[in-house]
Amino acid sequence: MLMIPASRENVYTGSPLDRLSGQRDDAAFIEAQLADEAALFVPVWRSRSLMRGVEQGQPEAVLLSRSGAEAVRMAGGPWAFLGLWEKRPIFAVDCSHTDDPLPLLPPEMGAFSDLRGVAGLLPEGEASVLAHARGLMHWRVKHRFCGVCGTGTEPRSAGNALACPSCAAQHFPRTDPAVIMLVVRGDHCLLGHSTRFPNVKMYSTLAGFVEPGESLEEAVRREVMEEAGISVGLVRYHSSQPWPFPASIMLGFYGEGLTEQIVIDPEELQDARWFSRAELRDPAAHGFALPRVDSIARRLIEDWLAA
Length: 307
Fold this sequence. Notes:
With 307 residues, the protein is α+β, with helices and mostly antiparallel strands. The chain contains six helices and 16 strands. Helices cover 20% and strands 29% of the residues. The longest helix has 17 residues, at 126-142.
């Protein structure tokens, strides 16, 4: 029963980019891409993405041309080569050091907005590219100094790596694995409400970070036991979702609930309940809300309901 395939790709997946990782260290190649008149730049400002149409509910990414991005690039923030999109070079460039980035851009180019609020509405491929740029630029901004000796780092591999000129340590973008799971018992599933949720009525799947020396299945069982006191038996993989908020990948699972009595950890959850399929199909009528549509949590719930 837990072998439930993903019905479609998760938001932030399906990248249209050819990352060309093998050519990042070719300085002549990267210079040629930067000089290409067809090159496009994805600006990031304090973890926000440049978009237009957000207020109208029809968001789309704003990618700057080579000339349009000149002022942003000259401002000296981190940048990185992301790859090719339909043979056009794509670069990320960060302008977080300036209090107001809009004067650096051509007029009427949109505004910087939180990607999470609109990702599910973006045209195909755009959410993935904006998430890629956001995650990589967050890492660049937060890792300016060597974690070994404290010396200022220098970019390598077209901005996709950092090197320490003092101790020669190499640093690469970090992605933290987190498990997210829908625990199922009979015709009911387990959902919890965290005090951190912005929606006071929302109930979602349980989740947590993988610890050192721990398998993914072990992480699922540990997190569910810690947060809700439920023993989990069989664990089956469903799908994954990049979640660069700031630097995670969500690994989705279904888990077999072996026990029924819930004992919550009040530091993690305010409440947890077993919900029936009927309740999940009409949450508003039962006084709760489901996670937003761009989340893997919502996909786990929807695919279980359809199984």
